[in-house]
Specification:
The chain is mostly helical and 210 residues long. It has seven helices and three strands. Helix 3 crosses helix 5, helix 5 crosses helix 6 and helix 6 packs antiparallel against helix 7. It is elongated and about 75 Å long.
């Protein structure tokens, strides 16, 4: 490709679109195989982002090649997860707005206040930030191929957002920042992110071994 178009993620997106519109468009093709050189890290990274998985290194007449492939079932699963990522990103912005609105009000709406009185103050942070962790992790899908990196960034973002809102409460009449609220935010977001990361890593391991 041209120099100005390189290292921008275009290769993975073009390959993905090609497989969706041509390779797996019909019902006759059951898999797609590529075999880059093991040292070609740029190409391998692009193929990973497009959904292909490394299988093994093979010896050919021209040298060693890394065999990578994706089957129809795995590709269809990737398409479903891509739609889920888009839905999560669409839902994330309004959900962040709702959290900010509720956190930075002088007082909670009556229904939430009543729930607080029953469960104890602060505990509603856990389910609220569980949802935020869920949406954030899914929104990062295919931006980062490693579940650990995806989980780390998702948790850091959720904790930072919760801490920011908690700090801003110092400027809201009738509200005071509370470290316990940040703790509950962390518990909720971390629980969601860890569960999703373990599930994704397990699914990826099963696909690679099948």
């Amino acid at each position: 490709g041209e120099d100005r178009a390189r290292h921008r993620g275009l290769g993975a997106r073009i390959l993905w679109q090609f497989m969706a519109e041509y390779v797996f468009a019909g019902q006759t093709v059951e898999g797609c195989v590529l075999s880059p050189e093991p040292e070609n890290r740029v190409a391998i990274r692009a193929y990973l982002k497009a959904g292909l998985r490394p299988m093994r290194i093979i010896q050919t007449s021209t040298g060693k090649e890394l065999l990578m492939c994706v089957g129809r079932r795995e590709f269809d699963g990737e398409k479903a997860r891509l739609r889920l990522r888009i839905a999560a990103r669409i839902a994330l912005a309004p959900y962040l707005g709702v959290l900010a609105y509720l956190t930075l009000r002088p007082s909670y709406p009556q229904a939430i206040e009543a729930t607080y009185n029953v469960l104890g103050r602060g505990y509603l942070h856990i389910p609220a930030y569980f949802v935020l962790g869920f949406l954030t992790f899914l929104g990062l899908y295919r931006c980062l191929r490693k579940p650990v990196s995806q989980a780390g960034i998702a948790m850091a973002w959720c904790i930072a957002y919760g801490s920011l809102l908690e700090a801003l409460q110092a400027f809201v009449p009738g509200r005071t920042p509370n470290a316990l609220g940040i703790l509950f935010d962390t518990i909720g977001a971390t629980t969601a992110v860890v569960l999703l990361a373990v599930f994704r890593k397990r699914k990826g391991h099963v696909a690679a071994c099948s």
